[in-house]
Amino acid sequence: MNWDFGFIQEYRTEFIDGFFLTLKVSMAALILSLIIGTIIAIFRISSNKALRAFGTSYVEFFRNTPLMVQVFFFYFGLASIGYKLTEFWIGALALSIYTAAFIAEIIRAGIQTVPHGQTEAARASGLSFLQTMFYVVLPQAFKLVIPPMCNQFINLVKNSSILSVIAAQDILYVGEQAIAEYDPFSVEIFVAALYLIITIPLSQGVNLLERRWAKQGTR
Amino acid sequence: MDFSKLLEGNTWGILMKGLWVTLEVAVIAIILSFIIGIVLGILRYSKLPVLSQLATLYIEIVRNIPLLVVIFFAFNTLLDKLDSLVMIVIFGMTVFTSALIAEIVRSGLNSVPIGQIEAARAQGMSYIQTLIHIILPQALKRMIPPLVGQFVTLIKDTSLAAAITLPELLHEAKLIYSNPSYVNATIPILLLVAVIYFVVNYSLSLLSRQLEKKLAG
């Protein structure tokens, strides 16, 4: 095997830009999917039948269809009726809509583990629905929700590589360009390493948090 | 937008041919991943020196890389050796999915109470006997629902291979609407593709839920 890392020098600025594009689109999608996911989760536990049905359909539909189809929808679909979004927003939107289905389920599970009696007690003490959520339910749900949320962010970073398919210049896209002139094996190793720089600390952090909180739980 | 195009020409036939490739790749990849995943999972669980660490290293690295990177990796380095897109995609997906299945196997193994293992060992069973007769049968039962979930993920992820022109469902859809006279049917075709994925995957999810109930009962 002939290692050749000369491409790092030549594509240095592209790789740096690509690295930050990957981070930026993942962050934008995280924020958007938290917003959409929270709304869907509230729909899922609402007492209104129509809202509940909508929430359930949303989760089931997007969990069972590929992210790539959503990306194609925003890319080719919108173009076919004369709309054009930037690659960044196509990626961010598709990632958010997809990830929101998973985040909604995490939030719902978190909220539902807080015993119902506590909500009733809070309401009986005169707290409003929102106050009950903010002061009673959410703080307790928080611990349960944080580790799987971090996992979703890891998935977002990994899934953001789909941007390269629509020619947004993320880490993977820059790598594919470098491959035209350099040893593919060396380039792919470097591309994988760039993703690992983001994902490994996150996944190790999740493991640590889970272990620490599991210990506190038994005390 | 022209929904009538869905019934014209050979749209339906082309999509079904694509779905067939998707299922073929997903089925072969899940079987291979299961075999490798079980070995990796047992190795990581085993605490055997070196082998256990190597399994952990493999699992942690592979599952933290995007699958698309793995697919491009296989495509760019193996094309001259394998000479078949289907084989390359199956290879890439197996490398990736076996790491995820190894984790399913490990948590299945961990869910067997330690008391049972101690009891089996106290009865004079060897480590391997305990693993085969006591731990694995119970662990396998608990692994079935997450394994079905992983299979659904594989069916979805096969669409990533459209990026290297594997003729699976999404790629075939793209071929249809790339035809100028079908451009105005792009959205209807993509919606239809989404529905096809949904029907296949949702049926599998329902099946898995039923299995879960049966196994719990």
Provide a concise account of the structure shown.
With 219 residues, chain A is mostly helical. Chain A contains nine helices and no strands.
- SS field, number of helical segments of chain A: 9
Number of helices of chain B: 8
Tell me the major beta sheet of chain B: none
What sequence of helices (H) and strands (E) makes up the elements of chain B? HHHHHHHH
pLDDT below 50 for ≥5 consecutive residues: which ranges of chain A?
Answer: none
Helix content of chain A: over 70%
In the CATH scheme, the class of chain B would be Mainly Alpha
CATH topology call of chain A: MetI-like fold
Helical percentage of chain B: over 70%
- What does the main sheet of chain A amount to? none
- The count of β-strands of chain A is 0
Task: Kindly report the average pLDDT value of chain A.
Answer: 92
Largest interface (CB < 8 Å): A-B, 40 and 37 residues
Number of domains of chain B: 1
Q: What number of domains of chain A?
A: 1
Q: Name the structural class of chain A.
A: mainly alpha
Architecture (CATH level 2) name of chain B: Orthogonal Bundle
Strand content of chain B: under 5%
| Distance, first to last CA of chain A | 54 Å
Number of strands of chain B: 0
CATH topology of chain B: MetI-like fold
Description of the molecule:
The complex is a heterodimer of chains A (219) and B (217). With 219 residues, chain A is an all-alpha fold. Chain A is 81% helix and 0% strand. Chain A has one domain: Orthogonal Bundle (MetI-like fold). Chain A is built from 9 helices and no strands. Chain A starts with 5 loop residues before the first helix and ends with a helix. In chain B, α5 (114-122) packs antiparallel against α6. The longest helix of chain B is centred in the N-terminal third of the chain and has 36 residues, at 11-46. Chain B has a single domain, classed as Orthogonal Bundle (MetI-like fold), CATH 1.10.3720.10. With 217 residues, chain B is an all-alpha fold. Chains A and B meet through α3, α4, α7, α8 and α9 of A and α3, α6, α7 and α8 of B.
